[in-house]
Amino acid sequence: MTEKVMTEKNMAVKTILCAVVVGMFAGSYLLLSRPLLHDLSSAMPSTARVSETTSKPVTPAASHLSPVEKSTSRLTAESGAPESAAITSSSDTTGAQHQRAQGIDVSHDQGRVVWRDVIASGIDFVYLKASDGITFLDPMFATNMQALMPHQILVGAYHFFEAGDDPHQQLSNFLRATKGHPLTLAPMVDVEVSRGVKPQVLQTRLRQFLSGVEQATGCTPVIYSYGDFWQTYIGRSFNHYPFWLADYSPEITRPAGLQHIQLWQHSEQGRLPGIRGAVDLDKALDHTALETIRCRVRQEAI
Asked: Is residue 301 part of a domain?
């Protein structure tokens, strides 16, 4: 009985000693291997580190960007939008700013116009008929001017030139019709009928009328006509005046020798909200055309 007990005690001591030795060996192994594991971890990129790098937008170094590119890059990074989308948006805005300005020319033939609806349709400028020859005054001119005053839109007045009438009397008629009205576009003269007058005579009378308009209003007037009429009756000696071409073709055809075309009347059968029946449709040939003919007519013109 005593011998058996001693044997069991010896076995227990051996077991404890074995456990201690194994524990010491394992602890030493872990202690020695930690630097090695750390070095391996540093040398090989982890999945988490790669994900963090690729999740942020990559932009060029600031030192290599122009001021515009820096602004675009900063806004893109802040908004999280791709840079290509910002560039496309900028291009679209630029294109919109360079669209041709749209306009109409109106006389008493259009009757009473609801200008609020016309302007809401996208019209940028308006020309109103003021007079014709030496006696006719358009009965809707003053009414239209009054109705347009509350609206922010460019407005001009035009005179229908009668080749057979005295140009000085025509000038007086036009100035009488437009006196006191806040016009913001240069006066226009519509020259499209000869009434049997020879080209040289028509040119002399037209030149007198235009000179009188410019002296009285302080604005260089605009000439309106068709290509054939310009070639036969007006000609290159009037090329220093802005020109308004009537041409109802799908694409404008520039008459040979004609310069400074600013406006294009491309239809006489236009339809717009606020106008019953047809109306002439016009457009500026480029984004600077309206600035070229923009002119505040002298209020004291008589």
From this structure: no
Q: Which domain holds residue 88?
A: 63-98
278 occurs within a structural domain:
yes
CA separation (Å) from 50 to 41, 44, 80?
13, 11, 19
d(CA 81, CA 115): 42
Query: What distance, in Å, lies between the first and last C-alpha atoms of the chain?
Result: 146
Question: Do 112 and 79 belong together in one domain?
Answer: no
**Residue 248 and residue 265 in one domain:** yes
Same domain? For 94 and 106 the reply is no
144 CB-near residues (< 8 Å, 6+ apart): 106, 113, 115, 128
Whether 182 and 238 share a structural domain: yes
Nearest to 205 by CA among 257, 259, 161: 161
Q: What is the tally of structural domains in the chain?
A: 3
* pTM recorded for the entire structure: 0.68
Contact 290, 138 (CB under 8 A): no
> Contact at 8 Å (CB) between 163 and 190?
no
Q: Check whether residue 286 and residue 175 sit in a common domain.
A: yes
DSSP 185: B
| One pLDDT digit (tens) per residue for the chain, 302 residues | 444 444 444 555 455 554 544 455 444 444 444 443 344 333 333 333 333 333 333 333 333 333 333 333 333 333 333 332 222 222 233 333 346 799 999 999 999 999 999 999 999 999 999 999 999 999 999 999 999 999 999 999 999 999 999 999 999 999 999 999 999 999 999 999 999 999 999 999 999 999 999 999 999 999 999 999 999 999 999 999 999 999 999 999 999 999 999 999 999 999 999 999 999 999 999 888 999 999 987 755 54
